[in-house]
């Protein structure tokens, strides 16, 4: 079977992964309304193409935090890649490097930050961070990724507690014994209590507040990007607290169900920050035209999560490369058909919202 679009890879992963693994990847919180709306929201946006624009040459390149990438699609932080493919994040890292794009490595990786860096030494990598009750855990991770030339920290801010993912509860989902969260190897030696996705429960610090952004800024010189912002009020506070970027994200619909789809929240964030920091978006991107819509609404770049895991389940590194290549090719074609020869030609005039 020839897999020619992301939904083909989704169908393959659903058919070939163990049920508990598929349920973990697909999980949304509660009724999964937000997870599903992330995709449906893109379908409510119509494109307004312009004609006779000379699109004989198309330039899809852009920059993120000053680093050039050939097309505006990066890899969002998702955990436990070894569930989908034996060498997990190593394949993801190599695929991202082969496509010259940005990979945000998750704290909850089944390969260590050192292993991920060694798999693609010249790759553009950011690191997704949580703040833990034991601040030393977070501080040590920051020091490690700084030494490994990761280029930014992506602080996830929408997870003071883990959302209720019903199928994971029904399946009594646990990390298989042959896998560990490699970034914490040795950190919880002797612990034999209940776990939350491979880490002792109550490890995350629910008291984290805006003052901790100052703590993190004093800890590192790396750019700090906040992932999980959905309102103009928090976007304005992010700018006031000196961060360098925002990822508009609802954690793939895995945290608070009933929040807006990320593409619906994007314009509010873009308007609030007024170009003072870069704004990115994740959630629900399945086609190149979705990428075009996101950029038209002000995103600098999009990040994809679940599709990367689908690609891994198909052919490891090659599968992830195919996912990224499909999005790149579809985006280039969508740009051309919409009359946009480069990124700067994409504007809000390109989109309109339609009721379904």
TrEMBL record:
Its cofactor is FMN. GO terms for molecular function: (S)-2-hydroxy-acid oxidase activity; FMN binding. The active site is at residue 251. InterPro entries: Aldolase_TIM (IPR013785), Alpha-hydoxy_acid_DH_FMN (IPR012133), FMN-dep_DH (IPR000262), FMN_HAD (IPR037396), FMN_hydac_DH_AS (IPR008259). It catalyses: a (2S)-2-hydroxycarboxylate + O2 = a 2-oxocarboxylate + H2O2; 2-hydroxyoctanoate + O2 = 2-oxooctanoate + H2O2. Its EC number is 1.1.3.15. The keyword Oxidoreductase applies. One of its GO terms (biological process) is fatty acid alpha-oxidation. FMN binds at residues 77-79, 106, 128, 130, 156, 227, 249, 282-286, 305-306. Keywords: Flavoprotein, FMN, Oxidoreductase. GO terms for cellular component: peroxisomal matrix. Glyoxylate binds at residues 165, 251, 254. PROSITE patterns: FMN_HYDROXY_ACID_DH_1, FMN_HYDROXY_ACID_DH_2. Residues 1-356 form the FMN hydroxy acid dehydrogenase domain. PANTHER family: 2-HYDROXYACID OXIDASE 2, S -2-HYDROXY-ACID OXIDASE-RELATED. Belongs to the FMN-dependent alpha-hydroxy acid dehydrogenase family. This is (S)-2-hydroxy-acid oxidase.
